[in-house]
């Protein structure tokens, strides 16, 4: 009888071991979720366009003296931190903050170019997609030192002599207003906005901007200036129509 009970208990043990569920992955290391690629219908797409204005007393920043480096312009240069022409504000970064269908919008393969020309960064304000190549040129006869200072991404600092080959970098994660500075010419500064998609624009010298190829829907767009802060607006984009969105900035208090 004892032998029968022993065999019976062993059988239960084997069954329990055989029916045991596989262990889940350790906490804190979930399997990565792959986002679906978003397909857009260009036949129904619309856009958002507008003008960025400045209202308030005239702002005049001190002129930049570049004479310490003979390879830089030897006359005083206007600051590019605030660029206002007839009440229109340039270098404002405008992007779609909310309203886009969730998913993967792809990564452009064409590089975004940041040039060093006249001992300035050109353009002063730019946008790119996370993972997209950033190509940095030196069109000057001066030597530069390119120092990117992100918080969420990996910072880097590289020298680039006159006529050196381009430096190519990428940013892995979205991050707003990444400052780039030349350590040899401290007045040289640019801002890079790293986004999850290409729905952004930068206002030109006339204050105008346009964000194209948006699916019809309701969006929140945000306009950001390095000195005057940010503003937001709700915009409805109809099929094959251009929605209007104007912003007016005032002096920072």
Structure description:
- It contains 1 helix and 19 strands.
- The protein is mainly beta.
- The protein folds into 2 domains: 42-100 and 199-253, Carboxypeptidase-like, regulatory domain (Immunoglobulin-like); 106-194, Immunoglobulin-like, CATH 2.60.40.420.
- The strands form 5 sheets. It has a 5-stranded mixed beta sheet, with no helix packed on it. Strands 1, 15, 18 and 19 form a 4-stranded mixed beta sheet that branches. It has a 4-stranded antiparallel beta sheet with strand order 14-4-16-17, with no helix packed on it.
- Strand 12 (175-182) and strand 13 form a beta hairpin.
CATH topology descriptor of the largest domain: Immunoglobulin-like
Number of individual domains: 2
What spatial form do the alpha-carbon principal axes imply? globular
Report Rg: 27 Å
Spatial order of the strands in the main sheet? Answer: 7-13-12-9-10
CATH class of the largest domain: Mainly Beta
Query: Total number of helical segments?
Result: 1
Secondary-structure content class: mainly beta
Strand content: 35-45%
What percentage of residues falls in helices of 4 or more residues?
under 10%
* Span between termini: 93 Å
Give the overall pLDDT as a whole number.
Answer: 89
Please summarize the sheet with the most strands: 5 strands, mixed
Low-confidence blocks of residues: 1-32
Which superfamily, in CATH terms, is the homologous superfamily of the largest domain? Answer: Carboxypeptidase-like, regulatory domain
Structure summary, number of beta strands: 19
CATH architectural designation of the largest domain? Sandwich
Give helix and strand order, one letter per element, not per position.
HEEEEEEEEEEEEEEEEEEE
